[in-house]
Task: inverse folding
């Protein structure tokens, strides 16, 4: 048997080039796909989990790109989607930095929370976005604007019918009376009617175009349209009314019978048209105030609009800045403090209220502090506006019974106080009883005061809070009992309304004078209410001291510490006031806060602390320095008073997070003065010198290489 | 590693032997000084945030393609790529070396910024934190664009094509996504993605004085990805 020769092993066929390319190509595709996927995945994971693994460093001196814990907590707990939209145009130098800070802070909010989206719209360059945004805001008021639009459409249609059917009545009237002998009185009436006709003539046919032009705007000015249409309706009604004179007086006018008939026919034609301009809905309808305010706000220069599905709030740039106390004389650009984060966070908090807190100003006599009449000293418009901007429901209630007027058939009445809804926090702001200084009104004042006290007592038992203001009281100095005073004494605070705080001030070596108005430059920093306003100016005018029971856990908020202070008891007398050692103190407490269980109370021995008399008092010096700047509240003389009041309300409403902590200085670092020659030299060195150096370097290298 | 640095050094020196480097340097010096002195004056803010923003948004997208267009393309065009690929260096080292060389060149290009910072220090009291973070951000965004340019340079031997493709990709990561994210249409999620992809937006934080991990990761991962792609493209030359 022969051995079989082993067959040579068969080698696999060599890969062709295309097979190799295919193999490597697929490898490459897979590798690239994996690399791209891994990169995308890594970025996605870090982005989605950035809350947990947030690592960032803020290297600015004032840490202005770091959100406070309070804001971070709020953003973490947001359960509604919020959109922040800043609208701007090229900012002027004075507020450029502030505006940039605003945009940066808004971006931080968007970065921190998925629930917050941020958008910046430059009004001039992003016209489409701006218009779309305004249209979106307009559409939110669709339901409220339906009756307005219906009234406008009805009026325009009726006015067009009126104009069409009236024809050329003016010409007809003139033709009828031409070459007629007319009495002087009748001629005067014709003159008056002619005027109305001319006015009417010039107005014809303009309404539809006006309305169409307005409606092309993303946010039409409905108030303006309504006003203009109401005027147009009034013009036509007047024409008809004036024509009645002609009819009535035509018999004695001296005109011919034929002319009289013509005039009568014209007037009758006018009378038939009167129903078209009578009882129109346009007379009763009005544009929603919220919409008009929003329109004005959005079209102002630098608004920041915050929107949820239910609520819209607009914060203006000037609300987010305030003048620093440190100002350079003659500086073109003022030093500002930036409150953007505090204001935005506060606004966000207010937008998430389930039930807006209620604030009720209770007055016992005199005019409504929130009403249109009444003196500046008794009004509280400025602080009310601030609270309403933060979504508080602010009302007023007169505890004084209304006597009525039997002769006019007006019965007496006692208006009941507002009643908070279930779960709604209410803060009762009791204004002092000014009427007690007038003996004639003392009795009515006493009744009102009793009513206010009774109501306050019952509301405090229900868990509401109160801010009670006292003024000096001649009644108290005569031993009268103030029932409200009795209530606050239970909280460890006793107002001494029979005393007026005074200070003896040296004018020169021989003469002294007394004063009752005191500037406030220092606030007690133990309370969050006053800690936040450290450094702000305030003023106290005609205050009474408070006696505090230290064991009741009362916190003094505001004290007067000046030399030669004393409290005057005989303030009604016209005798010269002199320093009284017996009533002198180093320190008088003017405002204090107390807590009893869930109930909070703040008592002030000053009657006009937050009235418009104080809070709208502008500082003339500052206005002169920055003339031309139009920021609201920018140059308030005593910003501390308004801040104190508003912060007190926030504290009483258990909403300390709304209290703006101290503003961050913007830490503006500016270039010092440079001589023109130096600046010019530096410019030329940079513009010409640097490129020249580069070119010389290049030429040198070229020469060297050429020679080498 | 030594080979990488050797390649980088060689690349840097060769850049200064050509005219493009000096044109780039001169343009950068002139452009930045014009912008800087537009806002440099008594009472103005002592900061360079605006200048860095100008550099990042308007200068770098054109300077970087000019720097990177010849990195690998020239080697391919001159057929010196074979020599490089047969030498005892890996493709990754070649790419890394060229990238680092280009980055070093950009570092030299940025020297006028030091002059401007010195002026601010001399005539004002600028915050140093934002200056430091701004320059850090500038290097990161430059690195990102350089990585894109390096990758595009491996795609073709024609330098101008490399320039154009680099510019196109950079503009995609800047103007294109910025434009998309600011349009009225698009879902919020889509806009968020576009917002995140924008190199300009990622860079803005550095100018403000912030350093955020997500920003650093964006640029680092972008650099890594494009350098990897460049390496893969270079490797593919062996079997194409």
Result:
């Amino acid at each position: 048997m022969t051995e079989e020769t082993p067959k040579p092993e068969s080698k696999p066929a060599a890969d062709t080039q295309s097979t190799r390319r295919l193999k490597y190509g697929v490898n490459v595709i897979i590798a690239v796909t994996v690399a791209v996927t891994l990169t995308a995945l890594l970025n996605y994971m870090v982005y989605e989990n950035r809350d947990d693994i947030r690592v960032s460093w803020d290297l600015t001196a004032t840490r202005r790109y770091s959100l406070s814990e309070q804001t971070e907590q709020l953003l973490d707990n947001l359960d509604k989607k919020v959109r922040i939209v800043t609208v701007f145009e090229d900012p002027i130098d004075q507020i450029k930095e502030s505006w940039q800070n605003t945009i940066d802070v808004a971006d931080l909010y968007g970065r921190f929370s998925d629930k917050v989206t941020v958008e910046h719209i430059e009004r001039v360059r992003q016209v489409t976005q701006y218009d779309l945004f305004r249209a979106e805001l307009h559409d939110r008021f669709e339901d409220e604007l339906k009756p307005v639009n219906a009234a406008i459409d009805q009026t325009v249609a009726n006015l067009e019918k009126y104009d069409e059917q009236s024809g050329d009545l003016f010409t007809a009237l003139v033709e009828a009376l031409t070459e007629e002998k007319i009495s002087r009185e009748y001629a005067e009436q014709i003159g008056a009617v002619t005027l109305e006709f001319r006015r009417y003539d010039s107005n014809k046919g303009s309404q539809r175009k006006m309305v169409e032009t307005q409606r092309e705007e993303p946010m039409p000015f409905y108030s303006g349209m309504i006003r203009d249409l109401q005027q147009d309706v009034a013009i036509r009604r007047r024409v008809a009314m004036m024509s009645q004179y002609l009819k009535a007086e035509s018999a004695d006018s001296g005109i011919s019978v034929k002319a009289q008939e013509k005039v009568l026919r014209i007037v009758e034609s006018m009378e038939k048209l009167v129903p078209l301009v009578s009882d129109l809905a346009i007379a009763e309808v009005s544009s929603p105030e919220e919409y008009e305010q929003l329109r004005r706000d959005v079209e102002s220069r630098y608004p920041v609009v915050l929107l949820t599905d239910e609520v819209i709030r607009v914060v203006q740039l000037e609300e987010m800045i305030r003048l620093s106390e440190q100002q350079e004389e003659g500086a073109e650009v003022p030093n500002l403090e930036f409150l953007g984060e505090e204001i935005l966070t506060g606004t966000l908090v207010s937008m998430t209220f389930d039930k807006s807190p209620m604030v009720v100003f209770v007055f016992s006599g005199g005019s409504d502090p929130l009403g249109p009449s009444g003196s500046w000293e008794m009004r509280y418009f400025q602080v009310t506006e601030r609270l309403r901007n933060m979504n508080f429901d602010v009302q007023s209630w007169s505890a004084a019974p209304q006597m009525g007027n039997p002769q006019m058939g007006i019965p007496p009445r006692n208006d009941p106080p507002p009643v908070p809804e279930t779960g709604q926090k209410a803060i009762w702001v009791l204004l002092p009883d000014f009427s007690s200084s007038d003996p004639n009104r003392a009795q009515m004042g006493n009744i009102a005061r009793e009513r206010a006290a009774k109501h306050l007592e019952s509301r405090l038992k229900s868990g509401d809070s109160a801010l009670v203001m006292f003024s000096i009281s001649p009644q108290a100095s005569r031993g009268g009992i103030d029932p409200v005073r009795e209530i606050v004494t239970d909280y460890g605070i006793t107002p001494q309304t029979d005393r007026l705080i005074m200070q003896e001030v040296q004018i020169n070596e021989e003469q002294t004078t007394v004063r009752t108005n005191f500037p406030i430059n220092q606030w007690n920093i133990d309370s969050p209410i006053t800690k936040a306003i450290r450094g702000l100016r305030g003023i106290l005018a005609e205050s009474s001291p408070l006696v505090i029971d230290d064991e009741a856990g009362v916190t003094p908020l505001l004290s007067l510490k000046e030399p030669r202070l004393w409290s005057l008891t005989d303030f009604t007398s016209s005798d010269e006031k002199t320093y009284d050692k017996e009533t002198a103190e180093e320190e008088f407490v003017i405002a204090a806060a107390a807590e009893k269980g869930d109930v909070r109370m703040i008592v002030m021995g000053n009657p006009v602390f937050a009235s418009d008399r104080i809070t709208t008092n502008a500082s003339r010096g500052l206005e002169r320095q920055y003339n031309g700047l139009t920021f609201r509240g920018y140059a308030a003389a005593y910003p501390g008073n308004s801040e104190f009041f508003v912060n007190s309300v926030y504290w009483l409403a258990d909403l300390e997070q709304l209290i703006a902590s101290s503003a961050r200085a913007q830490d503006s670092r500016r270039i010092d003065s440079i001589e023109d020659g130096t600046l010019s030299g530096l410019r030329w060195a940079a513009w010409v010198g640097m490129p020249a150096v580069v070119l010389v370097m290049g030429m040198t290298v070229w020469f060297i290489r050429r020679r080498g | 590693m030594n080979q990488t640095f050797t390649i980088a050094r060689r690349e840097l020196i060769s850049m200064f032997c050509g005219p493009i480097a000096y044109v780039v340097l001169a343009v950068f010096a002139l452009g930045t000084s014009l912008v800087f002195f537009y806002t440099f004056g008594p009472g103005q803010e002592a900061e360079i945030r605006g200048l860095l923003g100008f550099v990042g948004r308007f200068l770098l997208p054109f300077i970087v393609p000019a720097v990177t267009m010849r990195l690998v393309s020239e080697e391919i065009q001159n057929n010196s790529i074979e020599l490089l690929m047969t030498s005892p260096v890996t493709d990754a080292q070649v790419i890394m070396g060229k990238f680092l060389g280009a980055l070093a060149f950009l570092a030299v290009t940025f020297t006028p910024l030091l002059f401007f910072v010195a002026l601010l220090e001399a005539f004002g009291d600028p915050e140093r934190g934002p200056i430091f973070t701004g320059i850090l951000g500038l290097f990161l965004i430059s690195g990102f664009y350089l990585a894109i340019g390096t990758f595009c340079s491996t795609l073709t031997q024609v330098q101008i094509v490399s320039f154009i493709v680099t510019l196109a990709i950079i503009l995609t990561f800047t103007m294109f996504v910025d434009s998309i994210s600011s349009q009225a249409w698009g879902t919020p999620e889509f806009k968020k993605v576009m917002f995140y992809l924008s190199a300009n937006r990622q860079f803005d934080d550095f100018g403000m004085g912030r350093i955020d991990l997500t920003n650093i990761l964006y640029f680092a991962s972008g650099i890594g990805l494009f350098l990897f792609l460049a390496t893969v493209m270079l490797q593919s030359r062996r079997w194409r």
User: Anything to note?
Assistant: Chain B is about 80% helix and 0% strand. Chain B has a mean pLDDT of 89. The CA atoms of residues 36 and 165 of chain B lie 30 Å apart. Chain B touches chain A through 60 residues (CB under 8 Å).
